[in-house]
Amino acid sequence: MTGKTAPPAADPAPAAPKEEPAPAPKEEATPAPAAEETPAPEQPPATEQPPAPTDNSAPVPTAEATPAPEEGSPAPPAEPPVPEPEKPKAEPPSSPLSLAVEEVSENSVTLTWKAPEKMGRSGLDGYVVEICKDGSTDWAEVNKEPFLSTRYTIQDLSSGEKLHVRVKAVSASGSSVPATLEQPVLVREITQLPRIRMPRHLRQTYVRHVGDAVNLMIPFQGKPQPQVVWTKNDQPLDTSRVNIRNTDKDTIFFIREAQRSDSGKYQLAVKINGAEDKAILDIRVIEPPGPPQNLKLVDIWGFNVALEWSPPADNGNSEIKGYTVQKSDKKSGKWFTALERCTRTSCTISDLIMGNTYSFRVFAENACGLSEKAAVASGVAHIEKKKTVYQPEKIPERDMMEPPKFTQPLTDRATTRGYNTHLFCSVRGFPQPKIIWMKNQMEIREDPKYIALIDQGVCSLEIRKPGPFDGGIYTCKAVNPLGEASVDCKLDVKSTIG
To answer: Over the stretch 156-213, which tens digit does the pLDDT of each residue have?
Structure first.
C-alpha cells in the first residue's frame, strides 16, 4: 500500500507548480532543515495517513507555507543574540593554585592553597573541598557551603585511610576545574618526639637576687602537642609562688618576687604518649651575707696588727668570695679600707702610724655584695713610740789597688799633611796612673803642636797639622806605684794630593 501511495504524492507535485511553480521547490529546499527538526516526532503520523492524496496535497502547500513566514521572520529570532554579550559572565573562575598539605594528624588533614588567577566578572563565592577514597571514583563534598578562606581542615577522618583531595573555586558563573593533589594523603599521625630546647644560659645555675622577678621561657618541640609537667623535688609546684603558662611550642616559668625559699632544682618533663624528655632548671636566689663572727686582735708588734675571725653564720645562699678589712684611727674617726678580697679568716695589717690607736672591722662578701653589717673588734690597737738609733751597715773594705793595664791599645794610622789627627787608647789601674806620651822614644813635653787628654781612663793625643817630620813611632806609657805599661803605634803622614 505504501508503494501505491507513493505515486499520488508525485501527482500533486506537478499541480502545485502550475499555481506556484517557482516558489514550491525553493520552499522545500530551505525548510528541509526545519522539517528535519520539527517533523521528527510528526513524521510517523504523516506516513500512517497517505491514503488521501488529495487531502495531503492541500496541506502540503499549507505546511510549506507555514515555514515561509518562519523564514520570512528571522528578524525576531535575531533579537535573542542579546545574551551573547552575557557570555563573559558565564566564564567560571580558574583553578585554585598551589594546593598543598600543611599538616596531617590522626583524624584530620589541613590543606592550604592560593586564590585563582581569574575570578570571573561575578566574583568568587568561595571554595568547595572534595575527597575520594583511594581506589574509588566517588567524590564527596566536605563542606556544604562555599567558604572564602584558603586554608581548610578536613575533620573526622579514619586513621590509615588514603584519600584523594581536590578543591574547586565556585562563583555564580559555575565551578572551576578542580585543583587536585598529585598523590593521595595517608591519614595518620606525623609523630615528632618530644624534645626540650633548654637555652644555654639556663643549663647552669640561674642566679637571682631576693626580690627580683624570674621570667623564663623554655621552648620545646613535639607532635601532637606534648603534655608539660613541672615539679620541684618530685612534688607539684606551689602555685601561690610559681606561675606556669604553656603553649604548643614553649612553657613560661614566672615568679613575681623571688625569695630564698624559691631556690632549688625544678624538673621539667615534656610527654607524648609513652615518650618524654626531661630537663632540670637550677635556680638560686641570693642576698647579702651576714657579718663575720668572733673578730679579735691576736697580736700587736711594731707597726703591725694580726686579726682573726670566723665565717658568717648566714652566707646569703652564696659562696663567700672574701672579706674586706677596714681600720679607723682614734684621731680622725674615719674608716679606711686596709685589705680587700681577703680569702682567709685571718690577716696582718701593716704600716700603722706610731702613737695612733686603731679600731678594726670586717665585712663578708658574696656574689650579691658586702654584708650589711660588719664585725667590729672589741679591743683597740695602740702603736707605741720607741726611740730607734740608726746603725748603718758595715761594708768590708775591698782592696782596689791594681797596676796599670791597657784595655784598648793604640792602632797604626795614616794621615794627610796639614790635617789634624788623633791617637786613642784606654787604660785602667788604681791609683790612677800617670800618662806619658813619647815620639820615637822621646817624651813629648809642653809642645803646642800636641794636646794630650785623659778622661775616665780614655787617653787621647791630638797632633795639630802634622808635617812629614811628625811621622814615626808614638808610645803611650802609664805609670803608678804598682807598675807601668805601654803601647805604641806608627803614624804615617802623606803629602797633600795635588
So the answer is: 888 888 899 999 999 888 888 999 988 888 887 767 888 999 999 999 999 999 999 9
Q: Which of 127, 168, 173 is nearest to 147 (CA)?
A: 127
Ranges under pLDDT 50 in the chain? 1-73, 87
Q: What cell was used for 399? A: 782592696
The sign of the torsion formed by the CA atoms of 232, 234, 235, 237 equals positive
Asked if 140 contacts 185 with a C-beta cutoff of 8 angstroms, the reply is no
Burial class (CB in 10 A: 0-12, 13-18, 19+), 122: middle
Do 402 and 429 touch, CB atoms closer than 8 A? yes
Question: 385-440, pLDDT tens digit by residue?
Answer: 877 778 888 888 888 899 999 999 999 999 999 999 999 999 999 999 999 999 99
Whether 233 and 246 have beta carbons less than 8 Å apart is answered as no
Q: Are 494 and 416 in contact (CB under 8 A)?
A: yes
**pLDDT at residue 262, as a whole number:** 94
What pLDDT does residue 190 have?
63
Q: What is the pLDDT of residue 129?
A: 94
Pairing, β 483-494 against β 413-416: parallel
Task: Please name the residues in contact with 259: beta carbons below 8 A apart, sequence gap of 6 or more.
Answer: 210, 241, 285
CA distance 423 to 491: 9
Predicted TM-score (pTM) of this structure: 0.43
Q: In whole angstroms, what is the distance from residue 402 CA to residue 400 CA?
A: 6
The predicted pLDDT at position 355 comes to 87
